[in-house]
Design a protein that fits this description.
By secondary structure, this protein is mostly helical. 58% of the residues lie in helices and 0% in strands.
């Protein structure tokens, strides 16, 4: 369901300043803002814990190696 909301010109201008490109919609901007306050899912928390453990065990690839492989 789609709905319309009213916002002040000041808020509209503030949202417009957060656009990364002219193609960004106000909905995308609002979702990005909300994402910063949303809780991570339990699966995401588990994945992060696994990744941290793998890095601590030396299973990761250093950024310098990746850059070299990509020619950056």
């Amino acid at each position: 369901m789609v709905t319309t909301i009213q916002v002040s010109e000041d808020l509209k201008d503030a949202l417009a300043k957060r656009r990364f490109s002219d193609k960004d919609t106000y909905e995308e901007i609002l979702w990005d803002l909300l994402e910063d306050t949303m809780e991570l899912s339990e699966q995401t928390k588990r994945d992060i814990a696994i990744a941290r453990k793998e890095i601590a065990e030396g299973k990761g690839i250093p950024l310098s190696v990746v850059k070299k492989e990509l020619g950056l």
